Amino acid sequence: MYVVYRLLDHIMKVKCICLLLLILSLCIITDCSSPVTRSEMPAIQKGASPPDLLGETLDGHEIRLSDLSGKIVVLIFWKTWCNACKQELIETKALVHAYQNKFIIYAINIGEPPDVVRKFQRLYRLNYPVLVDRQATIISSYGIKAWPTTILINRQGRVHWTSIGSEVENMRQEIEVLLRE
């Protein structure tokens, strides 16, 4: 009888551990793809002048928005572990190819080591520059609270459109609007 009791006790512990792992997995998976709330939208608003500093290249060179004046600029803020970010970055490759030299795009990684970001860039063959925000100071200056967050800046250097989540088709439409101006 004691053996049966110990066996049932062991089975219950295994079930509890499996349930906890399932719950933890669901929390991780849904973290960057859950519905957007108003409080998650970036603080920077349409028509605003965004902060000048965009981040550093993987080689450590600073990139500033003021160096890109007169150009349409797309900024995608992301993390390597975020599935929605990965989807957005991969789908954006086709946009870059389709609109060669019509706009500039920077994928700005938030707080991860450059070697991790470089491996991600190579693995997914991103055909546009990747920057790093090592201390998460740039996302703070933009008021970004969720990822991926995409910010489209017009030729006048003002925010034209912002988005959270993978919104590549909407981004394409907004780029078209700016290209017609």
Describe this structure in words.
The protein has 181 residues and is an alpha/beta fold. It contains 5 helices and 7 strands; from the N terminus they run αβββαβαβαββα. It has helices at 2-30, 83-98, 114-123, 137-142, 168-180; strands at residues 53-57, 62-64, 73-78, 104-110, 130-133, 149-153, 159-164. Strands 2-1-5-4-3-6-7 form a 7-stranded mixed sheet. Strand 6 (149-153) and strand 7 form a beta hairpin. It starts with a helix and ends with a helix.
Quick summary:
By secondary structure, the protein is α/β, with parallel strands linked by helices.
The share of residues in helices is 40-55%
Radius of gyration: 21 Å
CATH topology of the largest domain: Glutaredoxin
Strand content: 15-25%
Summarize the main sheet: 7 strands, mixed
CATH top level label of the largest domain: Alpha Beta
Strand order of the largest sheet: 2-1-5-4-3-6-7
Outline: elongated
Class from helix and strand fractions: alpha/beta
Number of strands: 7
Q: What series of H and E elements makes up the topology? A: HEEEHEHEHEEH
End-to-end separation: 81 Å
Secondary structure layout plus pairing:
Elements (H helix, E strand, L loop, with lengths): L1 H29 L22 E5 L4 E3 L8 E6 L4 H16 L5 E7 L3 H10 L6 E4 L3 H6 L6 E5 L5 E6 L3 H13 L1
Parallel strand pairs: 3-4, 4-5
Antiparallel strand pairs: 1-2, 1-5, 3-6, 6-7
